[in-house]
Design goal:
By secondary structure, the protein is mostly helical. It has one domain. It is built from 4 helices and no strands. Helix 2 packs antiparallel against helix 3 and helix 3 packs antiparallel against helix 4. The longest helix has about 40 residues. The termini are far apart.
């Protein structure tokens, strides 16, 4: 599909905005919000009650961002006549990121919330060998892994996009053009 040249700049801007929204909130949640909530609040249940809804909304934002990245990556790679590998990486990484976000939102957050609600008393008060606590820890590790995979997919899209933009800025060399002669320096050794 050929894209109008005047639509290229807004499309690149939309692509970069979607990249920002796919990476920024996820990194901020993972490095600032969740650790601070679990460190400051007195119990893990209170921290989880705070971070659960935030994580769900971060997943929504990531899903929408990856959908936009899929569309803009496909359009831009066609417009820029990107190599097959770059086109494949742009689209597949966006699909992978969307799948990772959906897995966290639809398959991992609901069981975590269910375990927290069904646990007898606070999770912090359960013994380390309690099945609920072990299962919660497994789901948490899975959610963290899939969330990190989504961020990695967005970073891959960023790297491929940067490479394509950098290649677009190259000045093509004309074949067979000779370099201009280098002027000789004045020899001032006898002066």
């Amino acid at each position: 599909m050929k894209l109008s040249p005047r639509l290229e700049a807004p499309l690149v801007a939309l692509h970069l905005l979607a990249l920002t929204l796919a990476i920024g909130p996820a990194v901020f949640f993972g490095l600032a919000v969740a650790p601070a909530a679990f460190r400051i609040l007195p119990t893990r249940d209170m921290a989880a009650a705070l971070t659960g809804p935030i994580l769900t909304r971060a997943c929504w934002l990531a899903e929408a961002s990856f959908l936009v990245l899929l569309a803009t990556g496909w359009l831009l790679s066609g417009r820029w006549e990107a190599p097959r590998l770059a086109r494949s990486l742009l689209t597949r990484a966006a699909v992978f990121g969307m799948i990772a976000s959906l897995v966290v939102e639809k398959l991992l957050i609901p069981p975590i919330e269910k375990i927290r609600q069904e646990a007898s008393g606070l999770i912090d008060n359960l013994p380390a060998g309690d099945p609920s606590r072990i299962l919660l820890a497994r789901y948490h590790r899975l959610a963290t892994s899939f969330f990190a995979a989504g961020v990695a997919a967005a970073i891959l899209v960023l790297l491929v996009t940067a490479r394509l933009i950098a290649k677009r800025g190259e000045i093509p060399k004309t074949p067979g053009a000779a370099r201009p002669p280098v002027p000789k320096l004045l020899d001032l050794s006898d002066v």
